[in-house]
Design goal:
- This protein is an alpha+beta fold.
- It is 35% helix and 22% strand.
- It contains 11 helices and 20 strands.
- The protein has helices at residues 6-15, 29-39, 66-77, 149-159, 163-182, 235-246, 274-286, 303-315, 335-348, 367-378, 402-422; strands spanning 2-4, 23-26, 43-47, 60-63, 80-81, 84-85, 89-93, 97-108, 115-121, 137-140, 185-196, 201-203, 207-210, 253-256, 266-271, 290-291, 293-296, 322-325, 358-361, 391-394.
- The strands form 5 sheets. Strands 1, 8, 9, 10, 11, 12 and 13 form a 7-stranded antiparallel β-sheet that branches. Strands 16-15-18-19-20 form a 5-stranded parallel β-sheet, with helices on both faces. Strands 2-7-3-4 form a 4-stranded antiparallel β-sheet, covered by helices on one side.
- Helix 4 packs across helix 5 (163-182), helix 8 (303-315) packs parallel to helix 9 (335-348) and helix 9 (335-348) runs parallel beside helix 10.
- The longest helix is centred in the last third of the chain and has 21 residues, at 402-422.
- It holds the Pfam family ATP-grasp_2.
- Residues 10-234 form the ATP-grasp domain.
């Protein structure tokens, strides 16, 4: 899912007519001070990062003056949450909180539902897992017509909202439901939304995740890549998305896996299928190697798409090997992979990565022809002194032997790194 930071989600809520605190995002302590001066009263300074538990992580601070806002921002920028750095803070007015509430709109995937669902509780501000089940009220929502007013009234009444406030709460939840549908959200969580001392309901926080499949309908979001990523997209992520976005023939999923380009032991990883991918990761983990990336080409993609993905995998600097992990008896035409891999290795190995270990495992439909294409197409590179001297090709006899494949990659990668070090590279 494409995930918005809090300040981004709140901006879309504001445009949808929902109440959010006054404030703006800042990228420096000086900007934070200026925004606090504009607001003119006590503010909250909130680190913007895709992670929960921000209060516990110390990146949400309440301050009384602009100078304190600048100091708080500087302190937050120096932190990270679960290894993710913080580049922006949201500076917004401190709210007069009378009571905190929780609500979220999610997809209920249960067989008997398969619809959006509202979850509502009078116990806001807590981790949802900490809310007692009897205090969490749920209602499935008609995916066409949205949350009906009578359902909103009913859930508020069951939760114990006072009669004089039910209309206000039901209207608030209905507006959120409309925003959830209009913005094609997968998840819209407001925890907490609060009642102020004057009785107004305000979205004090916002977690908004957009259905990846809907991103094309919303150019206004400015989403560059509709994928689930642990952080900001890397150059490899963006290239991989450009391949998949413009070519729907089979799968061509490609993403970075935290590769740091400095540490040894990273392998350019090119599995074929999700189950196959898990086995390939097991092969690497068993021998202490690490995937530099993840690149799935399943679903019978054409050779040109496989070529583009493999070229990206092999373009990563300082990798110690390349694994084509076909750990399954695939029903797709495997010769498309063979033709693509032959072309890529013939372009990359002689001039860019001579001697790079390349373990190629292919099995399944058209296996014999596919393996023959690899052997014949790479034969002149695979001579003892050739740029492909560390290419090894395997078929179905090793389809489940992750230990063997991992050991071969480890032995070849050690040899390759030793050779590079001896040459001063």
């Amino acid at each position: 899912m494409a995930k918005f930071l809090e300040f981004q989600g709140k901006e879309w809520l504001r445009k949808s007519g929902l109440p959010v605190p006054q404030g703006r995002v800042a990228s420096t302590p000086e900007e934070a001070k200026k925004i606090a001066e504009e607001i003119g009263k006590a503010v909250a300074v909130k680190g913007q990062v895709q992670a929960g538990g921000r209060g516990k992580a110390g990146i949400v601070k309440l301050v009384n003056t602009p100078d304190e806002a600048a100091a708080a921002a500087a302190e937050i920028f120096a932190k990270n949450v679960m290894g993710v750095p913080i580049y922006q803070v949201l500076v917004e007015e401190k709210l007069d909180i009378k009571k905190e509430y929780y609500c979220s709109f999610v997809v209920n995937g249960a067989r008997e539902a398969r619809s959006p669902m509202l979850m509502f509780s009078t116990e806001g501000g807590m981790d949802i897992e900490s809310v007692p089940e009897e205090l969490l009220f749920k209602v499935n929502i008609d995916p066409i017509n949205g949350l009906q007013v009578y359902d909103a009234v009913d859930v508020c009444a069951r939760a114990g909202i006072p009669a004089q406030d039910i209309s206000k709460f039901a209207s608030f939840l209905s507006k959120l439901s409309q925003a959830y549908k209009k913005l094609d959200c997968q998840t819209l969580e407001i925890n907490p939304f609060i009642m102020t001392g004057s009785g107004n309901l305000v979205c004090a926080d916002c977690k908004m995740e957009i259905d990846n499949s809907s991103v094309g309908r919303h150019p206004e979001f400015g989403i560059s890549i509709a994928r689930d990523l642990p952080g900001a997209p890397t150059e490899l992520d963006l290239i991989g998305w450009s391949i998949e976005e413009t070519d729907a023939r089979g799968t061509g999923f490609l993403m970075n896996m935290g590769y740091d380009e400095v540490s040894p032991g990273y392998i350019g990883y090119h599995p074929i299928g999700g189950g196959s991918a898990m086995m390939g990761l097991d092969a690497l983990n068993q021998v202490g190697l690490k995937p530099a990336n993840y690149a799935d080409t399943s679903g019978n993609p054409v050779g040109s798409k496989i070529y583009r993905v493999a070229k990206c995998v092999l373009s990563q600097p300082n990798i110690d090997g390349y694994l084509l992990g076909g750990f399954m008896m695939a029903n797709q035409e495997q010769w498309h992979h063979s033709h693509a891999i032959v072309k890529v290795l013939r372009e990359v190995l002689p001039t860019q990565k001579p001697g790079l270990p390349c373990v190629l495992l292919l099995c399944g439909n058209r296996e014999d022809e596919s393996l023959e294409i690899l052997r014949e197409g790479l034969a002149d590179l695979m001579t003892p002194d050739g740029p492909g001297k560390r290419i090894e090709i395997y078929g179905k006899e090793y389809v489940t032997d992750t230990k063997f494949i991992g050991q071969r990659l480890l032995a070849l990668s050690k040899e390759y790194r030793a050779e590079k070090e001896s040459q001063g590279k």
